[in-house]
Amino acid sequence: MSIPKPGRSFDKRDPAFIKMMMPVWDWLYRNYFRVETGGWHNMPEGKTLVVGSHNGGLTSPDLGMFLFDWFKRYGTGRLMYGLMHREMWRGNRLAAEQAEKLGAVEAHPKVAFEAFNRGASVLVFPGGGIDVFRPFHQWDKIHFAERRGFIKLALREGVPITPLVSVGAHHTLYVLADLAPVMQELIKKGMPWPFPNPEVLPIYLGAPTGLTVGPLPNIPIPRKIYTRVGKPIVLDEDPKPGKSYKRDFIEECYQRVLRAMQDEMNDLIADSEYTKELPKLTLT
Fold first, then answer.
1. CA 204 from centroid of its chain's CA atoms
2. CA 32 to centroid of chain Cα atoms
3. How does strand 226-229 pair with strand 161-167?
4. How far apart are CA 170 and CA 91, in angstroms?
């Protein structure tokens, strides 16, 4: 019997581990992040592709708070797998193995298709590391890093996209700038660099290290977090197996989802304590 590649096993999800995490999440939810959530009546009963924008660095506290809400409402019986960058298994195997117990799998189309085949919903954050470490002056913007694979995934599977937005987690550390574009240019010009080409290289102010360079773990500053589930977006009213889509239609769908989620975030900000925010921090 062949051994699945790291991140490609659906058997690592551990309901007992999830139940063990619930009291910890519950305390953080109520006391540390004082979460307010809404829109859960919008969550479809069947399979869906939950598309989110996450914040707060590697800790990504809004993701943890969403998972708590999901399991509190649906228990461990309703399957959902979250797509996670393959570099997590290479760079931080221990953290990746813990995430697998919560339902994390590799962000790869074949893996996502298999999750849907198993009757599960799928959670994806298209912007990945670029999104979660986006500079603070972009905290109020949806950022997909121009990636459209999630649109193709939803179209192929014929499932609705359910928007997930959050506010507050980007205030748990302050990303001043992303140095990755500069580093990538220097590497092209011949600068020695023993590591893989960096996708993101943030410089940020956060606990416990203060001014920090690199996508390193942090302890979130206690700030209030708001999450909201938006109305499902049906991209194709007449989906069919094997149906092909033109690039223009995929782009139209991408822009439609981007606009809908930005509108949802704008409404959430207006209803939050971050409406009157301090001047935006930036090094640019």
1. 19
2. 21
3. antiparallel
4. 23
**Could you tell me if 158 and 265 are in contact, meaning their C-beta atoms sit under 8 angstroms apart?**
no
What the block records as the tokens of 136 is 């603070």
- The pLDDT assigned to 276 comes to 59
- Distance, in Å, from the CA atom of 271 to the CA atom of 69, rounded to the nearest integer, reads 20
Q: In this structure, which amino acid lies at residue 281?
A: L
- State the sign of the Cα–Cα–Cα–Cα dihedral 268, 274, 276, 279: negative
CB atoms within 10 A of CB 147: 16
**Beta carbons of 87 and 205 less than 8 angstroms apart:** no
- Taking only the tens place, the pLDDT of each residue in 55-112 is 999 999 999 999 999 999 999 999 999 999 888 887 778 888 999 999 999 999 999 9
pLDDT band for position 11 (50/70/90)?
Answer: very high
Instruction: Please give the pLDDT value at position 94.
Output: 84
Fold of 15-174+222-270: Glycerol-3-phosphate (1)-acyltransferase (3.40.1130)
Give the domain ranges of the chain. Answer: 15-174+222-270
Please give the C-alpha separations between residue 233 and each of 140, 237, 282, in angstroms, as whole numbers. 21, 10, 34
pLDDT in tens, 181-236: 988 888 888 888 777 778 899 999 999 999 999 888 899 999 999 999 999 999 99
> CA-based angle 43:235:225, to the nearest 5?
40
Q: What gap in Å lies between CA 61 and CA 55, rounded to an integer?
A: 7
**Residue 261 is which amino acid?**
M
d(CA 68, CA 77): 14
Distance CA 228, CA 62 (A): 11
Q: Are 37 and 132 in contact (CB under 8 A)?
A: no
Instruction: Quick: pLDDT tens for 127-143.
Output: 999 999 999 999 999 99
